[in-house]
Amino acid sequence: MARPLEICCTACGRNALARAEPLYEGFQKRGEAFVCTACGHRYPSREATPFADRAVAPRVFTDADPPETVRVFKESERRRCCAWCAHFVVNPFGQRCGLTNRETEATGLCDRFESRAEPAVQPQTPPKPRDPLAGLFGDGTLNT
Ligand SMILES: [Zn+2]
Questions:
Q1: 25 CA to centre of ligand 1 in angstroms
Q2: Domain total for the chain?
Q3: I want to staple 34 with a disulfide (CB 3.0 to 4.6 A). Which of 49, 51, 59, 141 is the partner?
Q4: How far is the CA of 45 from the centre of ligand 1 (A)?
């Protein structure tokens, strides 16, 4: 059973406890406001507070939402990712661009992209390196 002050916060989308704040008008208690302890969102009245024990409130996110695989790149863009760039350097301390020497994301897109001549074979990896982005992009074959 849900605790009396448990809410499905519509501001942060989490199940959280609400903190009751009495509202006074002069010395007269006028009502209560409720504050989400997770994000601090303030509901001005009991009626406005999305208590969890209330009949299933509309939630922004449900557990039924399919876990969408991130496929943000089109095939044409895919090859322009830093991960496929000749300047992309991966070492145990992170990944960076060899041109700017800045930390970079494998999924980054860059004007100075230069196609890598061949798939990088890391010295410490076995002969058939696993595509580190396979999970992100799907099991595409790399024909560079
Ligand atoms: Zn909240």
A1: 26
A2: 2
A3: 49
A4: 15
